[in-house]
C-alpha cells in the first residue's frame, strides 16, 4: 500500500468518484446489480462535489494502478450547497431522466429523489454548517485509510475556520457506524433519526 497517496480532488476525478459511489452504494457494498442507470448514485452523492461552489474533497489514489480508490467529499456550507444544487444541478438531471421509465426500484428511487431532493435537518446545521461523505473500495478498507482521509478533511476544515462536521449514515451499515463512533462521532442532538452523526474536532480520537 506504499503507492497510495491522499491528494485534493479535481474535476477530472468525476468518473472515478461515480464508480466508487456505485461500488459502495448498497450499505457499503456494490449496487451494480440494482441499477440499469449506474451513474445515478454518483450524480447524487459524489459528482456534485467537483462541480458546485462551497465544496471540498480529497481522494485516495493508488499510483501503482493509476486509479482513485476512495474519497472524502463535502461542503463547508451545507445550506449554500443545497441552494446551488437546487438551482444548477438537480434541474438538468430531472429533465434528462424525465423520459426514463425505470425497470429497477433503485433507479426509480433515485429519479424520484432528483425531483424532491432531501435537505439537511436544522439540527445538523446547528451542529455544523459542514457535511461530508466518505467511501473507500472494499479491497482498500480496514487498512487505516478511512481515518487518514478523515484526518486530512478535518485539518482542511480547521483551516477554513470550522469546528465540526457531520454525515448521514445508511442505517444498514453497522460497520460504518462502529468506525465513526471509534473516531468520536456521536448522534446529533435533536436530529430526526439516529443516523445523523457528527463530531466536534476537539473530540476527534
UniProtKB/TrEMBL annotation:
Record keyword Cell division present: no
GO biological process, one term: glycoprotein metabolic process
Pfam families in alphabetical order: Acetyltransf_1 (PF00583)
Record keyword Transferase present: yes
CDD domains: NAT_SF
Source superkingdom: Eukaryota
Domain N-acetyltransferase: 4-205
Keywords: Acyltransferase, Transferase
Molecular-function annotations in GO: acyltransferase activity, transferring groups other than amino-acyl groups; beta-N-acetylglucosaminidase activity
Name under which the protein is recorded: Acyl-CoA N-acyltransferase
